[in-house]
Specification:
The chain has 111 residues and is mainly β. 0% of the residues lie in helices and 33% in strands. The chain is globular, with a radius of gyration of 12 Å.
Length: 111
């Protein structure tokens, strides 16, 4: 099954939560506006499922790395793919289509 690819235009990373998400990391949060850190990754990483405690809980993210990442609505990279562009952030994922739907992610390129 091939997932739908959706482009988004998140803001430039920098206003997020620098105390939690240091330079060179991709970080995900339970709440809007970078509150309630659920996890982060530093170096390029291959497709990984979120932990059961973080799955379907992400409402904002920031990518403070110089390369793109991506996330999927389904486990194991299935479902719709969304790019987490380098040096970008999304403080309020779309409540109707994105918020609380992330199940897997990767830090080795865009969708």
């Amino acid at each position: 099954m091939i997932g739908l690819v959706v482009a988004a235009t998140p803001g430039v990373a920098g206003a997020g939560n620098p105390d939690y998400c240091a330079s060179g990391r991709i970080c995900v949060y339970k709440n809007w506006n970078f509150d309630g850190g659920l996890g982060w990754r530093g170096t390029s990483f291959s497709l990984t499922n979120l932990s059961t405690s973080a799955e379907d809980q992400v409402s904002s993210w920031e990518n403070r790395r110089s390369d793109n990442g991506r996330w999927y609505k389904g486990r194991n990279g299935t479902g719709t793919c969304y790019t987490m562009s380098a040096k970008r952030e999304n403080a309020k994922m779309n409540v109707f289509t994105q918020s609380d739907t992330m199940s897997s992610w990767a830090g080795n390129g865009a969708c």
